[in-house]
Amino acid sequence: MKDLLSEQDVDFLVETFYHKLQKNDVLSPFFIHTNWEQHLPKMKHFWNFILFDKPGFRGNIYDAHSNRQIKSPHFDIWLQLFCDTVNENFKGINATKATEKARELSMLFSWKLEETEGK
């Protein structure tokens, strides 16, 4: 198995992950009104920025997801799907970096949501 080494690898990862997400009974309802033609390129830019420090990502991923009524437990499912997608297709330094960053994002999102819900 190869590592995540190129933009094409990131494209494959993002497309495969969101395909799984759209089939997930728990998460798919949160994304039913998503414009995938707009969302997927943004997520590809995001992961290329995270993994390869490539410019092109603009936006705030927390704000983009916080208005979807997603709760902390949903991020556990999101994280599992993402990590499974990475681990089923890639192995190496960047694959590990991707899963570690996804864990950080999941924890951050969960923490922010809990903070917001507590107010």
- What is the overall pLDDT average? 87
According to CATH, what is the class?
Answer: Mainly Alpha
Helix share, percent: 55-70%
Question: Which value, in Å, is the CA radius of gyration?
Answer: 14 Å
Number of E-state strands: 0
Describe the largest sheet: none
- Shape label: globular
Number of domains: 1
The name of the CATH topology is: Globin-like
- The amount of beta strand, in percent, is under 5%
Count of runs of 4 or more consecutive helical residues: 5
In sequence order, what are the helices and strands, one letter per element? HHHHH
- Which superfamily, in CATH terms, is the homologous superfamily? Globins
Low-confidence stretches: none
Termini Cα gap:
46 Å
What structural class is derived from the secondary structure elements? mainly alpha
Question: What is the architecture at the second tier of CATH?
Answer: Orthogonal Bundle
